[in-house]
């Protein structure tokens, strides 16, 4: 069993660290708000640290699940010189590929392994140990961290060198943005046409229109309930990262850019903490509902 540190106990990190502990790994956690660390230690075997540096001492693996590039960089800079040689720093945050490459280089200078490993599956996936993990880094880093990450993974793919995991996560978010907008428009159209939503979904979900979003979100979308899954505020952060990368590599993302602005409208409606399926609320508001 491994000695692990887990830095960041949000809606994803809290259960992910819990799965590590439940599999018998020795886990020490840190969170910016100490109350979350205390709540974690009450629910799981393990210890809490007052600082990131204190959390990582002696750890074979240091996992981060934070907010955005500035958070990741600040915490990583704090812990790198306190990690033992040969340990692995694994970042589950959705962040930029450029930062992943920067931290990979910093790890290499210190004899550490690096893996950027953003996840997909949302809060439910984290709680159920059913996350999809997209990894970038060396073969050695993936081979070392994979068996430990299996505590909360449904699937893991090694996509390439440092930064590749983040690039694959960008593809994931690009695809989701278009899918949710299409589903929102389909449901909105069905209602305007006087169709029964359940009947429509039963008909189209058996064919080419089927998707995870349709299977899991159509009913709550039709009912105007948006407290399930990934928040709009975080989706806009992820789409910002993807659009910045697209400007750098020359990719054209017209639908993604448009849906990003639709999410901005959702934020202006007070829906920043609604889940991403709330795109239908913007359409219904325009119709006067």
TrEMBL record:
Name the UniProt key words of this record, in alphabetical order: NAD, Oxidoreductase
Write down the InterPro entries for this protein, in alphabetical order.
3-OH-isobutyrate_DH-rel_CS, 6-PGluconate_DH-like_C_sf, 6PGD_dom2, 6PGDH_NADP-bd, HIBADH-like_NADP-bd, HIBADH-related, NAD(P)-bd_dom_sf
- According to UniProt, the name of this protein is NAD(P)-dependent oxidoreductase
Q: Which residues form the active site?
A: 169
The source's superkingdom equals Bacteria
Record's keyword annotation contains NAD: yes
A Pfam family of the record is NAD_binding_11
- Domain named 6-phosphogluconate dehydrogenase NADP-binding: which ranges? 5-160
- The species this protein belongs to is Alkalicaulis satelles
User: Which Gene3D superfamilies does the annotation name?
Assistant: N-(1-d-carboxylethyl)-l-norvaline Dehydrogenase, domain 2 (1.10.1040.10), NAD(P)-binding Rossmann-like Domain (3.40.50.720)
Q: Which GO terms describe its molecular function?
A: NAD binding; NADP binding; oxidoreductase activity
Phylogenetic classification of the source organism: Bacteria, Pseudomonadati, Pseudomonadota, Alphaproteobacteria, Maricaulales
């Amino acid at each position: 069993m491994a000695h692990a540190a887990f830095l960041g106990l949000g809606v994803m990190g809290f259960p992910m660290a819990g799965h590590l502990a439940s599999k018998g790994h020795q886990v020490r956690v840190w969170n910016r708000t100490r109350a979350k660390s205390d709540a974690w230690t009450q629910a799981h075997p393990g210890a809490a640290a007052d600082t990131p540096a204190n959390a990582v001492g002696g750890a074979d693996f240091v996992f981060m699940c934070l907010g955005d590039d500035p958070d990741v960089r600040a915490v990583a800079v704090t812990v790198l010189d306190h990690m033992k040689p040969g340990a692995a720093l694994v970042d589950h945050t959705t962040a930029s590929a450029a930062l992943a490459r920067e931290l990979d280089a910093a790890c290499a200078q210190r004899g550490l392994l690096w893996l950027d490993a953003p996840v997909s599956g949302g809060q439910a996936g984290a709680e159920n140990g059913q996350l999809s993990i997209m990894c970038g880094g060396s073969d050695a880093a993936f081979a070392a961290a994979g068996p430990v990450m299996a505590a909360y993974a449904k699937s893991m793919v090694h996509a390439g060198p440092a930064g590749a995991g983040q690039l694959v996560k960008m593809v994931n978010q690009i695809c989701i943005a278009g899918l949710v907008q299409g589903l929102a428009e389909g449901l909105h159209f069905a209602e305007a046409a006087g169709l029964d939503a359940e009947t429509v979904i039963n008909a189209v979900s058996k064919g080419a229109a089927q998707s995870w979003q349709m299977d899991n979100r159509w009913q709550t979308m039709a009912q105007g309930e948006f407290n399930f899954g990934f928040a709009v505020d975080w989706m806009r952060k992820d789409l910002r990262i993807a659009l910045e990368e697209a400007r750098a590599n020359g990719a054209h993302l017209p639908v993604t850019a448009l849906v990003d602005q639709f999410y901005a409208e959702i934020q202006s409606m007070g829906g920043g903490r609604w889940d991403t399926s709330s795109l239908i609320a913007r359409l219904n508001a325009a119709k006067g509902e």
